[in-house]
Amino acid sequence: MTAIASNISALWILIANGWMQNPVGYVIRNGRAELESFTAVVTNHFAWWEFLHTVPSAYVLSGFFVLGVSAWHLLRKNELNLFKKSFRIAAIWTLIFSLYLIIEGHIHGSEVAKTQPTKLAAMEAHWETEKGAGWTLFAIPNKEKESNSFEIKIPKILSLLAFHDPEAEIKGLKEWPKEERPPVALTFWSFRIMVGLGFLFGLLSILAFLKRHNPEMSHFLMRILVLNIPLPYIAVQAGWIVAEVGRQPWIVYGVMKTKDAVSPLSEVQVGLSLPAFIIIYGILGIICFWLIVHYARKGPEPLASTSTFKEKLTI
Ligand code: HEM
Predict the structure, then answer these.
(1) Which of 57, 47, 157 is nearest to 102 (CA)?
(2) What pLDDT, on a 0 to 100 scale, did the predictor assign at position 312?
(3) Do residues 251 and 282 share a domain?
């Protein structure tokens, strides 16, 4: 029940976020956006693509977490039967969602190209409008010079990936005034980190799947899977940086700027509430991290022997 409820909760959060990314079903009345069509908001295609990407990315994270913890115990020969089983289940689960994420991520990228051209241009550090645009493998974006100081490009691939046509036109950042462009380097590199990790996860999940029947034999893979545990967390954060930093300077894309959405708070209110949030969430984060590491390393409680089990039943 908790798992189902969390997934549904994620859907509503992403419908709200999807509206900020691609506002639909509203009218501006008396200077504010008012709901006109609930159906349009709930069926917003951008929100659904976000849902279909974000929730499975959490499944990939959980899958690699179980694989990593299982590998840690298998390397130490703890509870072999239990951890071989958890490894096997997680290997199948992770393979499905890692490969799915690469395919769906590509479709998601095409949606961004259609809906948020400034975000696409920042994701690709693409400055000049061009037909048959190349895909930038590596670049050092230079905001002042409005170009990349250094870049490695593969011709035509960006047009092909974004619009499934190698000759399609991709608008460059220079099409928009400077104050309407997102931060380029952060968006560009976050996108590269997420996609790079996405392909690494695809490879690791294939290897884990192939070794699922006797994972304890592959020490090298087991060590890599333990080291891999933090990487899906980084991929998820990088994904959100692409989605949110890439949307700037808009809080609601094309409708309202982030600077116009700032609440009228005094410096004292911000000066008190911000450190309070940082301290409380910092403490909660440390406790949570400690608990996860503690219980993951501890492994399961030993199974009660038949006699104690019977005794407990009698009691
Ligand atoms: C090859 C693989 C991938 C591709 C092509 C891809 C594509 C994308 C795109 C285009 C966005 C931006 C969408 C927007 O602005 O709303 C995005 C966002 C995101 N990505 Fe990825 N992604 C990939 C892999 C991953 C992986 C491996 C994870 C995490 C395990 C991940 C987690 C996220 C998250 C949490 C977001 C923000 C929410 C959203 O916009 O859907 N992605 N991804």
Answers:
(1) 57
(2) 56
(3) no
Question: Ligand 1 within 6 A of 236 CB?
Answer: yes
If DSSP codes are grouped into helix, strand and coil, which group holds residue 307?
helix
Same domain, 10 and 131: yes
pTM reported for the whole predicted model: 0.91
Q: Is 112 in the pocket of ligand 1 (CB under 6 A)?
A: yes
Number of domains in the chain: 2
Neighbours of 149 (CB within 10 A): 9
- According to DSSP, the residues that pair with 33 across neighbouring strands are 28
**Confidence at 215, pLDDT banded by 50, 70, 90:** confident
- Which amino acid makes up residue 144? E
Place of tokens 């250094």: 150
Asked if 102 and 198 touch (Cβ cutoff 8 Å), the reply is yes
Domain extent at residue 298: 268-315
Residues 178 and 205: their CA atoms lie apart, in Å, by: 42
Asked if residue 254 and residue 274 are part of one domain, the reply reads no
Please give the average per-residue pLDDT across 201-212, as a whole number: 96
Tokens 């409005």 belong to which residue?
Answer: 146
Considering the domain architecture, whether residues 159 and 207 belong to the same structural domain is answered as yes
Is the CB–ligand 1 distance for residue 134 below 6 Å? no
Is 30 in the same domain as 93? yes
